[in-house]
């Protein structure tokens, strides 16, 4: 995702999601490599799929979500099957702040956590 490790990601331009993600990337580029390490590789953005066990479209299906840091993150269903625990502290706070500044929420804060996942949800911010 950072320009130092380029990847082609498809996201929507609706509500300036692409522009907002570009601003996040610009902020992240100014961070030390040790902070950026958990971002790569990205697991992608646009993907026409549903939310597990719901049948409802994922925010990925609308091109308004991105999964980052596959090696550094955890997903509730993976943890359950592996018997591992999720440590939200694995994601540097600077990364979370950069995404939240552009109104992306982090799936690592959810009960059914998805530590790789950020999605654009401006209505959840004041």
Quick tags:
26% helix, globular, 126 residues, Muramoyl-pentapeptide Carboxypeptidase, domain 2, alpha+beta, 3 strands
Explain this structure to me?
The two termini are 27 Å apart. The protein is globular, with a radius of gyration of 14 Å. Helix 1 runs antiparallel to helix 4 (93-101). The protein has a three-stranded antiparallel β-sheet. The chain is of the alpha+beta class. The mean pLDDT is 87. It has helices at residues 17-29, 33-36, 76-82, 93-101, and strands spanning 65-67, 104-106, 117-120. The chain has one domain: Muramoyl-pentapeptide Carboxypeptidase, domain 2 (2-Layer Sandwich), CATH 3.30.1380. It comes from Dankookia rubra. Pfam families: Peptidase_M15_4.
Which CATH class? Answer: Alpha Beta
- Envelope shape: globular
Please state the structural category: alpha+beta
Query: What about the largest sheet?
Result: 3 strands, antiparallel
Task: Tell me how many strands there are.
Answer: 3
**What is the architecture at the second tier of CATH?**
2-Layer Sandwich
User: pLDDT average, as an integer?
Assistant: 87
InterPro entries: Peptidase_M15C (IPR039561), Zn_M74/Hedgehog-like (IPR009045)
Protein name: M15 family peptidase
GO molecular function: peptidase activity
Domain Peptidase M15C: 57-120
Write the layout of secondary structure elements.
Elements: H1 17-29, H2 33-36, E1 65-67, H3 76-82, H4 93-101, E2 104-106, E3 117-120
InterPro entries: Peptidase_M15C, Zn_M74/Hedgehog-like
Protein name: M15 family peptidase
GO molecular function: peptidase activity
